[in-house]
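Hi D.,

Good news: the full-assembly prediction came through. Inputs first.
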Amino acid sequence: MSNDDQNGIDYSMLQSRLGYKLRRAQLVYFDVFFEACAQEGITPGLFSILAIIYHNPGLTQSAVSTALDVDRSAMVAAIDKLESMEVVERRKSKNDRRSYALYLTDKGKEFTERLNRKVAAGEDNFDSFMKEGEREWLLDLLDRIIAARKGG
Amino acid sequence: MSNDDQNGIDYSMLQSRLGYKLRRAQLVYFDVFFEACAQEGITPGLFSILAIIYHNPGLTQSAVSTALDVDRSAMVAAIDKLESMEVVERRKSKNDRRSYALYLTDKGKEFTERLNRKVAAGEDNFDSFMKEGEREWLLDLLDRIIAARKGG
DNA sequence: GCGAAATGTTTGACACGCCAACAATTTAAA
DNA sequence: TTTAAATTGTTGGCGTGTCAAACATTTCGC
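Then the structure:
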């Protein structure tokens, strides 16, 4: 077995580096993910926000940001954009006058469902190299990696 | 089976999205990778460059950039830094007066080997949640994903 | 020999993550 | 109850990384 690719480059030191391989593989799937989202005029990051709000209506911006593990300052421009697209709305919370409760509009719900179908189809369309059951196994292993984040 | 995490958030739409899970997992391993590199005053991107030059001495900057799938303009500052650390040197190519041939210095070879041990140890130290043989399986599957990049 | 392509390089735009502030508000402590 | 500490949304700055375009020098194809 060789450590060369088709260009004759020796990748020995990177061959068994999960950090490197995960990055390259993530870039590949990001393209798939991105292309599906772009068809609906949106980015993968914005889709993940919609996906969270869809199943968790009423969440605050901070709650969404911690759910997705992004900085809450990044949420401002994101919700601004989704609100300008009329798929998300900020409602003033009665309990806490500091925060907003986030909801999808009717248009937003339909938009998110269509987006979800498109993204899922885009990924499934790219799974031809996977053997039976491998996808589920991969998702499970990735979950374990994510869960082991802090001092597993 | 629930789609909630420990905070009671419903992740249904993201639960089986490889694009999302790969990104999260990559972030986790990037931290491991980054920490190991930081101990030697370097970044994961610079390590990958060293790893390529280590096993492929004499490569041009463009060859390294295509091998790592990064823009060749990004190579300039990277090699500048590695040269200032005296681990890499640009030698003028006799055949092609446009390009440089990249080589590791003796110091650079030792540096890269120590770095490689540290990065590998950092990853192995984080593999406790993996079952026997799972790591090889994962690396193989990631390779297939990367190889399927263009029109799989 | 002449036009096309490659190499290293610079530059500018753009996005993104990270961190530090800040005002308004809520919570906890004394 | 008064006061200190924490939270929320928001802005701004800084560093990074990506991407595209341009450029001079040099090489390659015809």
